[in-house]
């Protein structure tokens, strides 16, 4: 997996260097026409993740492709950060969590949980698609409960999935509290302490203060 990731990075870096070389050539070579410049750019082929699927074993081919191989070679973790592929990745992850998690190999289960963490980091960083990620967590929880006694892998592996679910749920809950704190600061504090950044920092680091504020000013928090 590490070698594959290194290969993808080297491929991308090579394309970037070629593009830089072409642009430098366009600035230094006065004889280079616009059509020639476009032709050089078109010849730079970007890496497109792909995989050749072997569905059946033959005399020539004795190795089949697993779901993990497909997810890795299609570079799903990077696809999460692509706005054009994000929804597709989430739908695929939801389907696998709902129907296939308990039948996947231990390696595939671990990769799927790692992919969920990548989605979580992207969602928290972009402040978007919160509802989609919540649905994924609910799907994971339902699948873990339904197949608690019928799954591939050890009980420790399944317990690790539960711990990962609790950690992601806790992270999302803490993020929601921070958003609520910021909303409170925007709507309540401006009248008295509009520029008091130190107060905002204290509220962000101490959620218990928010609970007291909610008790003292319930209508303002709502």
TrEMBL record:
InterPro entries from the UniProt entry: FBX25/32 (IPR040394)
Keywords: Ubl conjugation pathway
A GO cellular-component term linked to this record: SCF ubiquitin ligase complex
Keyword Acyltransferase assigned: no
Pathway participation: Protein modification; protein ubiquitination
Domain of life of the organism encoding this protein: Eukaryota
Presence of keyword Transmembrane helix: no
GO BP: any one term: protein ubiquitination
UniProt protein name: Uncharacterized protein
Organism the protein comes from: Schistocephalus solidus (Tapeworm)
Lineage: Eukaryota, Metazoa, Spiralia, Lophotrochozoa, Platyhelminthes
């Amino acid at each position: 997996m590490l070698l594959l990731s290194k290969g993808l990075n080297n491929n991308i870096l090579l394309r970037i260097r070629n593009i830089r070389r072409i642009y430098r050539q366009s600035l230094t070579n006065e004889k280079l026409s616009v059509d020639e410049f476009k032709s050089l750019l078109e010849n730079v082929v970007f890496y497109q993740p792909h995989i050749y699927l072997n569905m059946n074993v033959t005399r020539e081919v004795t190795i089949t492709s697993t779901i993990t191989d497909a997810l890795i070679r299609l570079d799903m973790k990077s696809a999460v950060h692509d706005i054009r592929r994000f929804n597709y990745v989430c739908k695929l992850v939801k389907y696998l969590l709902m129907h296939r998690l308990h039948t996947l190999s231990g390696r595939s289960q671990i990769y799927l949980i790692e992919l969920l963490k990548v989605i979580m980091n992207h969602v928290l960083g972009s402040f978007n698609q919160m509802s989609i990620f919540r649905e994924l967590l609910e799907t994971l929880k339902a699948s873990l409960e339904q197949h608690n006694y019928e799954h591939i892998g050890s009980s420790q592996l399944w317990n690790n999935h539960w711990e990962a679910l609790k950690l992601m749920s806790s992270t999302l809950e803490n993020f929601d509290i921070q958003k609520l704190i910021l909303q409170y600061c925007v709507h309540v504090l401006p009248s008295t302490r509009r520029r008091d950044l130190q107060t905002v920092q204290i509220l962000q680091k101490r959620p218990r203060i928010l609970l007291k504020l909610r008790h003292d000013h319930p209508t303002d928090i709502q």
